[in-house]
């Protein structure tokens, strides 16, 4: 298996695990939703600066490095629903809290999504559980830190967490996948 096949497999295993966990916790309905607008925003504008922040903070704050990507996904999904044309070009740093990357979670949960403390705490616990699961999978796979493969695995983890946040927020807003016959 070449590196790209391995990374695709790793991402698939991680996504499947998050779907099972998220569905059992009531945050998902058996799958991660895909939205081309939101995927493109990540791929073209948000992934590079987010990964730079997360990798820089990973050794000190590994849970935050993973979880903040989910909060970012939630914020982008909220903006997509409210006024995509008005927000689709918001700079990455607009998601920062007053202390920058350090409190992105609080800024998204309380300022952008206006969640109450109980719901925010439950969601934070869920994302921290997902972060722990991602780190366990990395250890189980024997992926060495500070290697090329280690970097690419982390980038894939952040992508899956971002998609998880999108799905959780879309579900919170009442979106459901509906098959349409054409």
Q: Biggest sheet, open or closed, and with what strands and sense?
A: none
Over the alpha carbons, how many angstroms does the gyration radius reach? 16 Å
Low-confidence stretches: none
Number of helices: 6
Mean pLDDT: 94
Strand content: under 5%
Please give the domain count: 1
Distance between the termini: 38 Å
SSE-based structural type: mainly alpha
Secondary-structure element series = HHHHHH
Helical content band: over 70%
E-strand count:
0
Shape: globular
Keywords:
182 residues; mainly alpha; 0% strand
If you had to describe this structure to a student in words, what would you say it looks like?
The chain is 70% helix and 0% strand. It is mostly helical. The chain has one domain. Helix 2 runs antiparallel to helix 3. The longest helix has 26 residues. The N and C termini lie far apart (38 Å).
